[in-house]
Write a structure and sequence with these properties.
The complex is a heterodimer of chains A (about 130) and B (about 190). Chain A has helices at about 5-20, 35-40, 45-55, 95-110, 120-125, and strands at about 30-35, 60-65, 80, 90. Chain A has about 130 residues and is α+β, with helices and mostly antiparallel strands. Chain B has a six-stranded mixed sheet. The interface of A and B includes residues 32 and 39 of A.
């Protein structure tokens, strides 16, 4: 059975990963909208997938967090990805499979997934 | 919302918006009385009597971005349609407790869903906040506090993916032990 005492052993593993991080580099940020609209549309499994992928791929320079309503409920689940310079890319109608592609193509390879991005029309109509 | 743990997550977000520094979530399943009780308790700003009267109205919200606030009304409806009850206790400066009860065997009761996902994703998104989780059946209980996690991991952040992964497995395991065979969607 798992217990909190085992966490002390995991601490070293986490510290090793943290030490691998280049302290001078800025972190990329993935922010998931997690208000009623986002949760009801499936934002939690999307966030779960981002966390699992970041862990699985050892992406030490990526932070995953959540925010409230992003203001366009009809486009939820919505995700903002901020690059190291603070530029924002907004993804809409996300799901766990799309989240995996955003990690592989955008976060790892630096190529935003244009087909999942919000369009000007969607932004104006939402 | 497809399951009850999503409602819990939604209400926990309300607690955080209300400036809570500690959020406690409780899930209690009593087979003998066929009663499932969920609550979210926080030490946030609390609500005035006036706000409390209006909070179950879907067209009331404190937000300025939209004119609807569906979190509380949906949670309330989930309880009432499953033979349960819903109440909110709150006072300015004293925090808020939202409680929903369900008949476990009611055909309209939604499945509990993953409380582990709800709690760990909230820890992930809000590493500066203390979260408590109490899972309970009639014979036993499991209590989890982020303060105790911090004691074990020292200078490692509580939202470190390795730590989050472990906590998720631990809560999932306890959910199966405590609710397996009581909530028919959970296999022990």
């Amino acid at each position: 059975m798992k217990s909190l005492a085992e966490l002390a052993a995991l601490r070293q593993k986490s510290l090793d990963k943290l030490n691998m991080r280049n302290e001078d580099s800025e972190r990329q940020r993935i922010v998931v909208g997690m208000a009623t609209c986002g949760i009801a549309a499936g934002a939690r499994p999307v966030m779960n997938t981002f966390v699992e992928e970041v862990n699985k791929r050892n992406l030490t320079d990526v932070a995953v967090s959540m925010t409230g309503c992003m203001g366009m409920c009809v486009l939820e689940p919505m995700v903002d990805v901020y690059d190291t310079k603070g530029n924002k890319t907004t993804y809409v109608h996300m799901n766990p499979e799309k989240a995996k592609r955003v990690i592989a193509e955008h976060i790892v390879n630096g190529q935003p997934v244009t087909e999942f991005m919000i369009t000007a029309e969607e932004a104006n109509n939402a | 919302m497809t399951d009850l743990s999503l409602h819990l997550m939604d209400i926990m977000q309300n607690s955080l918006t209300a400036g809570a520094s500690c959020v406690e979530v409780g899930v209690k399943a009593q087979k003998s009385t066929d009663l499932l009780t969920l609550y979210v308790r926080d030490n946030g700003s609390g609500m005035t009597e006036e706000t409390l009267k209006r909070v179950s109205d879907p067209f009331y919200t404190t937000r300025t971005t939209r004119k609807a606030g569906l979190g509380i009304p949906l949670f309330k409806a989930s309880a009432e349609m499953a033979g349960g009850d819903f109440r909110i206790e709150s006072a300015p400066g004293k925090g808020t407790t939202v409680t929903a009860t369900y008949e476990i065997s009611n055909i309209d009761r939604k499945p509990l869903g993953s409380v582990a996902d709800t709690v760990t994703m909230c820890i992930m998104g809000h590493p500066g906040i203390e979260f408590h989780l109490i899972l309970e059946n009639e014979e036993s209980s499991f209590v989890f506090r982020t303060e105790e996690v911090r004691e074990q991991i020292g200078d490692v952040p509580v939202n470190d993916p390795v730590i989050i992964g472990y906590l998720k497995e631990m809560i999932e395991e306890q959910s199966r032990i405590l609710f397996g065979g009581i909530l028919n969607e959970i296999i022990s």
